[in-house]
Amino acid sequence: MKGKILVTGGTGYIGSHTVVELQNAGYTVVVIDNLSNSTTDSIDGIERITGIRPEFIELDCNDLEGLRKLFQKHSDIKGIIHFAASKAVGESVQKPLLYYRNNLNSLINLLDLMPEFGTENIVFSSSCTVYGEPDQNPIDETAPIKPAESPYGNTKQINEEIIRDTVRSGSPIKSIILRYFNPVGAHPTAEIGELPNGVPQNLVPFITQTAIGIREQLSVFGNDYDTPDGSCIRDFINVVDLAKAHVIAIDRMLGNKSEDKVEIFNLGTGKGVSVLELINVFEKVSGTKLNYKIVGRREGDIEKIWADPKHANTVLGWTAKENIEDTMASAWKWQLRLREKGIM
Ligand code: WQD
């Protein structure tokens, strides 16, 4: 086996897809999660896909002593992929202290313990939200970091600074920071996918839940933006493509392939798709007419943002492969599976 990787938040949406790809690549994976926004159904799904059930420990990364015990039990962790965080933009505006406490303390605890147990590599789950409203698109890693539009976005900016300052202090830690654009879709087997608690904040699960009848109607937050059809533009990236980039990042660090102790990569397709265009794609691939209405803008929304993924393409040798039609079809297949299983 290629060594042991700790995945925090590994029962969540992106985490579970990344565990699948890590196991497919021959890594041994230990998953920790506090199950605040996911269930262990995803562990079952990972096992059905890969034939390997990763070790799962229910643990909150804010629990320093609990984390210490984990590292004592697994003293051979070669790398960490840190997903565990609160991530709803709107909720972060309502509950900023919850977001600062959770998202900052959990990272600080990990960085504190890593050198004690000889773990030097951490991949950090960041977000394009750190850029705020770009001056121009596509946006690359050299773009200025603007004041965050939400406490959630601010925690991601501060997390990146914590990592940089820790490395700069002479710590043996190395890090690759991955800035995701908009992760969407589900594993092609429909064994795992996005399963937000309660009313979805994000667009795609709201689309699929509306199409299947769980939600009455989708509200499109504004069509008066300075875009071709007036709706916001995003870079919707397939979650499996995104997961594969994490394996490449871990390979890169364990293989000591870089002189730089902190590297940053934008993970996107490089294509902008508007909200209304995405709805049209969904209607085409699902064969259903979506019930939606245009309403006012949502506070804090970015008008348009899409990636320049050249740095990840050339340095990581990674490119997003899945097209938006197949990606939206995978989201719909997942929603239909949830209905079949009586989960939703
Ligand atoms: C996308 C577009 C909405 C819901 C955030 C975080 C990012 C990442 C993904 C965690 C926007 C519109 C949405 C709806 C709508 N988070 N929309 N009706 O805000 O781009 O990104 O979530 O990994 O870090 O910043 O994603 O899916 O909420 O919104 O019209 O019911 O869809 O206005 O234009 P967002 P989103």
Could you characterize the architecture of this molecule?
- It is built from eleven helices and 13 strands.
- The protein is α/β, with parallel strands linked by helices and about 350 residues long.
- Helix 1 (about 15-25) links the parallel strand 1 and strand 2 (about 30-35).
- Helix 3 (about 65-75) runs parallel beside helix 5 and helix 9 (about 275-285) packs across helix 11.
- The structure holds UDP-4-deoxy-4-formamido-beta-L-arabinopyranose.
Mean pLDDT: 96
Q: Tell me the fraction of residues in β-strands, as a range.
A: 15-25%
How is the quaternary structure best described? single chain
Catalogue the ligands: UDP-4-deoxy-4-formamido-beta-L-arabinopyranose
Question: How many DSSP helices?
Answer: 11
The largest pleated sheet is described as: 7 strands, parallel
Radius of gyration: 19 Å
Compute the number of strand runs: 13
3D shape: globular
Range of helix content: 25-40%
Structural class assignment: alpha/beta
User: Which parts are unreliable, with pLDDT below 50 for 5 consecutive residues or more?
Assistant: none
Measure the end-to-end span.
Answer: 37 Å
The strand line-up of the biggest sheet is: 3-2-1-4-5-6-11
- The helix/strand order is EHEHEHEHHEHEEHEEEHEEHEHH
